[in-house]
Amino acid sequence: MGKSKGISQDPRKQIVDHKSGSSLGAISKCLKVPRSSVQTIVRRYKHHGTTQPSYCSGRRHVLSPRDERTLVRKVQINPRTAAKDLVKMLDEMGTKVSITTVKLVLYPQNLKGCSARKKPLLQNRLKKKPDYSLQLHMGMYSGLTKEK
């Protein structure tokens, strides 16, 4: 279903002014506005006391932009910080979130949970030691390789 154009503020005020005794159908015919729109405007006026449209559709953000920046800053300082630790930090600040929420905030900043593994420490004595499997592959041990 396509998105319809909103009704401007002037017809909304006229609808509320007409309501003082007219039916919804009569108001819609008079102003050439759908009856369901008239019904919605009147209901909103009775409930909220205003004819302004609400533009806050959609789910609200769990974290404020300030909390998101704090998370990103903490992870940029120490990339090996666990998501559980970040959740505990936010909980101490007074915001209860899940680990998934923390990961979804960090993902657009390219801060994923993977980091390069540590390379093994190669000491000089280990560098000098011959690697038996490599020498087999290169054919250095002729007695152990197949003869053609």
UniProtKB/TrEMBL annotation:
<feature type="domain" description="Sleeping Beauty transposase HTH">
    <location>
        <begin position="1"/>
        <end position="52"/>
    </location>
</feature>
<dbReference type="Pfam" id="PF01498">
    <property type="entry name" value="HTH_Tnp_Tc3_2"/>
</dbReference>
<dbReference type="Pfam" id="PF25787">
    <property type="entry name" value="HTH_SB"/>
</dbReference>
<feature type="region of interest" description="Disordered">
    <location>
        <begin position="1"/>
        <end position="20"/>
    </location>
</feature>
<protein>
    <recommendedName>
        <fullName>Transposase Tc1-like domain-containing protein</fullName>
    </recommendedName>
</protein>
<dbReference type="GO" id="GO:0015074">
    <property type="term" value="P:DNA integration"/>
</dbReference>
<dbReference type="InterPro" id="IPR009057">
    <property type="entry name" value="Homeodomain-like_sf"/>
</dbReference>
<dbReference type="InterPro" id="IPR002492">
    <property type="entry name" value="Transposase_Tc1-like"/>
</dbReference>
<feature type="compositionally biased region" description="Basic and acidic residues">
    <location>
        <begin position="10"/>
        <end position="20"/>
    </location>
</feature>
<dbReference type="GO" id="GO:0003677">
    <property type="term" value="F:DNA binding"/>
</dbReference>
<dbReference type="InterPro" id="IPR036388">
    <property type="entry name" value="WH-like_DNA-bd_sf"/>
</dbReference>
<dbReference type="GO" id="GO:0006313">
    <property type="term" value="P:DNA transposition"/>
</dbReference>
<feature type="domain" description="Transposase Tc1-like">
    <location>
        <begin position="69"/>
        <end position="129"/>
    </location>
</feature>
<dbReference type="InterPro" id="IPR057667">
    <property type="entry name" value="HTH_SB"/>
</dbReference>
